[in-house]
C-alpha cells in the first residue's frame, strides 16, 4: 500500500492520495471482482475537445449542429430542437423526435441522415485523445479481469486499447450470444455498450421499450442481474446513471435486496450538503459514494492511483459463478417486474 503515500503524476496534474482516503473495502478487491461502469465523465476527461462527449445533452446539441451544417433539417426545425434541448428535462423524448425527423416517412425508425450526423460528430475520435491516463488505468484493470460496460456511444476505450495491442471488442445488447459470453467472463476485452454504439445507429436505444426483447429474455436478464449481485460495480464518470432508464431496466428494477450489495461511485464534491445527501440516498441501492476531489482535474490522477492499488491485490479465490439457470420462482418474479416496467405510457 505504499502507493497510497506516493504522488501520482497524471497529464500534468499532481495528486497526493494522502489527502484523500480510499475505502479499504474497495482497494482490497481484486480486479476480477469488479465491473467498471463507464459514463460520459470518462470520455470528457480523455477528449475534452469534443463537446459531444461531455454529456447526453451536449451530444444531442452536437447532432443538431451537424444536422444544420449538413442541411438535413429545416432551419425552423433546427431552432425548435435547440430550444427543446435547452429546456426539456426528458432528453430521451428530444432524441427520439430528432431521429424520427431525419428518418424516412414510413414509420420505420431506422435512422437515415441521423447516421451521417453521428459520423460527423464522432469523426476521428482517436485524434482527439488528450489525456489517456484514465483509459490506461481501465485497460490495466481489464488485464487482470475487471469487466467493463458503458452508457457511452463512443468507442474511445476500444480505440485506445487497440493501440496497446489489446483485442478490444465493442458489444451491444442485440447480440445475445456475445453478451452471455461477456457476462460469463469469456470475453476479457469486451466492452458492453448498453445504449449501443455510434457506428451502428440502428442499434441505439433511447428507452426501455426499445429493448423489450432483451428485458423479456429471462436467461439474459438473469445473467446480467446476477452480475450486479455477485460483483462490485465501480461507477466512473457517471453523473445520472442511476436515473438512466436502460440501466434501471437491466440492473435495478428486478434486483431484490439492493442494500445488501456493495458497489462504488466516484463523484465530484462541489457541495457538502448535496454530497452527503446523495451518499445517504445511494446507500439504499448498495452504492458507496466516494469523492475524487472538488475539481474535474483531480479525476484522472485519482483513478490512476485507485487502479494501481486495486491491481496490487491477489485473487482471493474463484470468481462467483453467474447462474444461467435461475430457479423458476425467480424467473416468474422477474417476468412480473419487467412487464410492470414496460407498461405503455410509463
TrEMBL record:
Keywords: Acetylation, Phosphoprotein
Similarity remark: Belongs to the FAM118 family.
Region annotation Disordered: where it falls in the sequence: 321-346
Protein name, per record: Family with sequence similarity 118 member A
Protein's UniProt keywords contain Phosphoprotein: yes
The keyword Phosphoprotein is assigned to this record: yes
Source organism (scientific name): Leptobrachium leishanense (Leishan spiny toad)
Domain of life: Eukaryota
InterPro entries per UniProt: FAM118
